[in-house]
């Protein structure tokens, strides 16, 4: 990605950050990290609280190491997103927004396998422009958006939408995920029932 | 460069090299002072051009260089040091930094620091005027734009939008009550979190309590509706009301007579057999109440043509009764809301329930999940018999998160003592709740106290204290 599209992404990120800063929930709780990928993936900005965040100079050229990007994202989630323990408050599950304008040029499936092992609240993939492969992105996540043109206006709109998604307040969720239907009677108490302390 | 050497090189470049047989002639040529002066002059001008060019380059590089200074926040003391060494600006003379006054900040050229308290938020561009070593004294200063981000004060961004009171499941955005509860007293307050107030959303928390005079039992319930479920405000209401009504009916209907006998004997005889019998009663009575809450919500959901998931809510409740030798406290809990029993001398706390917390923020379990009843329920009950107590507290995570932060702190009496002192006025707002049964303003005081500010903690808040 270069020329107008990358300029548009830069402006989009800038716009997104400015608008998020006006959201009271986001400014007190949101953390942002930026990972770029071309011939290689690298974390441009580590997970940083929104109030301190500054948009870096985003530059990408060359090929599309999508697999490496997914693997790096997984590693960053491991290192930077806190899990709940008795002594530590867990972070909310991360939201991942992936944007690409080309076909992956590396072994993306192994990177995807690694990424899939991490829990995200939402992963959105954006195919920017006609050369991006939505088929590949569909395997990364069900939430794929396509921008027919990678111009300033369209990319700007995408980032406006991303801001709105980040801005929604964190909500309580089920952590088990399993679904059991129907319930009639209280099951008999276990034989070793002992509540008394 | 030596002017003579320059002349020789010049002739070479111009393809008129000095041939060996011309050496003497060249020597004579160079003895002419005016020629040497001309060469010196050319050399000087060349140097001037090169110096000017590299100076221009340097200035251009500085202008393009991305430098970052830390972001500020409106109303918060700001201090930033210009990192001229780190930026490689040893050859720069900084003259002025413009654009700070409008924000409420000032630049100190001596220390190269920006200081002050920002008054305005936005993305600002400061204008730095500078000179590079080598520039003429009277040269016009160069200008560089440096971005400075000032965040708004989060407090100023929260809006209070009333919820839609025509909604069928509407409930008041906040409520606070106090009442006698048997020989004790209860004060309870519940209010919508800022995150809900900001968007005009409903309060999802709820509570209910009652004292049943004939049997002497008191019941108190607290529930936190899931933010992700659309009718959770109704789920939390049904859960609380059902539990109080169900247990009230059982108590007044004489169903707890046998339990009464067992509890009366408990203080003198704590044998295993007695404990087992009490456990079974607790399991059936409190487990039955929890299940009734599930059933009521399920039936209501069906009636509404909605799924029970739409009513997801946590639930904690306690049954309390005074006996001759002390108080029996029986509890049940699903979700991430704690119940704490603080001893008479405040030297001990008993956390009555284990919280359901997930790996990530916000993950928990709800009374509306059928698998709660399929899994072993026994860990969800609590029982304690005490001679007396300072307070029995039930709260939602809107209170627990900011005040206790992590589960481990709920086991620490020092944290609970700090919490009590906080209620007694040891806080930034000097908000005080006078826990005195004769205090007519106690409910209002609790409600005011509950407005405390805690960054990032803007969930609904509910706190019930029996004292």
TrEMBL record, chain A:
Gene3D superfamilies: von Willebrand factor, type A domain
Domain VWFA: 1-140
InterPro entries, per database record: Tellurite-R_TerY (IPR011392), VWF_A (IPR002035), vWFA_dom_sf (IPR036465)
Protein name: Uncharacterized protein YegL
Highest taxon of source: Bacteria
Source organism per UniProt: Taibaiella chishuiensis
Automatic annotation (TrEMBL), chain B:
Signal peptide annotation: none
SUPFAM superfamilies named in the record: PP2C-like (SSF81606)
Alphabetical list of Pfam families matching this protein: PP2C_2
InterPro entries named in the record: PPM-type-like_dom_sf, PPM-type_phosphatase-like_dom
Name assigned to this protein: Protein phosphatase 2C-like protein
Domain PPM-type phosphatase residues, every copy: 164-466
């Amino acid at each position: 990605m270069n020329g107008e599209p990358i300029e548009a992404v830069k402006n989009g990120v800038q716009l997104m950050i400015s608008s998020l800063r006006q959201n009271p929930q986001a400014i007190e709780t949101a953390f942002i990290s930026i990972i770029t990928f071309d011939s290689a993936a690298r974390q441009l900005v580590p997970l940083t609280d929104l109030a301190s965040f500054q948009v870096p100079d985003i530059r990408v050229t060359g090929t599309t190491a999508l697999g490496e990007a997914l693997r790096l994202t997984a590693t960053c989630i491991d290192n930077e997103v806190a899990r709940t323990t008795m002594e530590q408050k867990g972070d909310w599950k991360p939201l991942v927004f992936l944007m690409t304008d080309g076909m992956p040029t590396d072994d993306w499936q192994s990177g995807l396998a690694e990424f899939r092992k991490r829990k995200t609240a939402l992963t959105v993939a954006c195919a920017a422009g006609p050369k991006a492969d939505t088929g590949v992105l569909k395997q990364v996540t069900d939430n794929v958006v396509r921008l027919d043109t990678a111009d300033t206006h369209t990319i700007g709109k995408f980032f406006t939408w991303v801001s709105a998604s980040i801005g929604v307040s964190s909500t309580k969720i089920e952590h088990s995920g399993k679904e059991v239907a129907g319930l009639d009677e209280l099951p008999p108490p276990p034989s070793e029932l002992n509540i008394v302390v | 460069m030596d002017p003579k050497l320059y002349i020789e090189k010049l002739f070479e470049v111009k393809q008129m090299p000095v041939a060996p047989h011309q050496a003497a002639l060249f020597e004579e040529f160079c003895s002419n002072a005016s020629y040497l002066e001309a060469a010196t002059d050319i050399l000087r001008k060349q140097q001037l051009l090169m110096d000017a060019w590299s100076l221009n380059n340097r200035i251009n590089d500085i202008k393009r260089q991305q430098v970052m200074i830390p972001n500020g926040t409106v109303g918060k003391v700001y201090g930033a040091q210009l990192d001229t060494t780190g930026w490689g600006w040893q050859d720069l003379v900084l003259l002025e930094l413009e654009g700070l006054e409008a924000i409420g900040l000032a630049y100190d050229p001596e220390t190269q620091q920006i200081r002050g308290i920002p008054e305005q938020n936005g993305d600002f561009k400061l204008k730095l005027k500078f000179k590079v070593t080598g520039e003429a004294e009277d040269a016009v200063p160069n200008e560089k734009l440096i971005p400075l981000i000032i965040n708004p004060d989060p407090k100023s961004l929260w809006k209070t939008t009333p919820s839609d009171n025509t909604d069928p499941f509407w409930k008041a955005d906040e409520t606070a009550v106090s009442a006698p509860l048997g020989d004790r007293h209860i004060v309870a307050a519940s209010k919508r979190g800022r995150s809900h107030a900001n968007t005009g959303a409903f309060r999802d928390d709820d509570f209910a309590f009652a004292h049943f005079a004939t049997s002497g039992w008191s019941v108190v319930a607290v529930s936190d509706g899931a933010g992700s479920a659309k009718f959770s405000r109704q789920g939390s209401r049904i859960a609380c009301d059902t539990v109080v009504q169900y247990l009230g009916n059982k108590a007044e209907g004489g169903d707890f007579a046998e339990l009464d006998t067992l509890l009366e004997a408990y203080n003198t005889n704590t044998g295993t057999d007695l404990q087992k019998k009490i456990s079974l009663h607790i399991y059936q009575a409190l487990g039955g109440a929890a299940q009734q809450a599930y059933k009521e919500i399920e039936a209501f959901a069906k009636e509404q043509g909605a799924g029970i998931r739409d009513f997801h809510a946590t639930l904690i409740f306690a049954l309390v009764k005074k006996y001759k030798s002390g108080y029996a406290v029986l509890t049940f809990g699903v979700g991430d809301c704690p119940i704490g029993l603080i001893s008479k001398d405040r030297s001990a706390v008993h956390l009555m329930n284990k919280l359901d917390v997930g790996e990530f923020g916000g993950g928990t379990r709800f009374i509306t999940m059928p698998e709660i009843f399929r899994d072993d329920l026994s860990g969800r009950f609590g029982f304690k018999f005490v001679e007396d107590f300072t307070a029995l507290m039930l709260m939602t995570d809107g209170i627990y998160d900011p005040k206790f932060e992590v589960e481990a702190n709920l086991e620490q009496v020092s944290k609970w003592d700090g919490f009590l002192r906080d209620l007694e006025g040891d806080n930034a707002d000097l908000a005080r709740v006078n826990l005195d049964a004769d205090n007519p303003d106690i409910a209002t005081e609790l409600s005011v106290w509950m407005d405390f500010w805690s960054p990032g903690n803007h969930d609904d808040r509910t706190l019930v204290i029996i004292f």
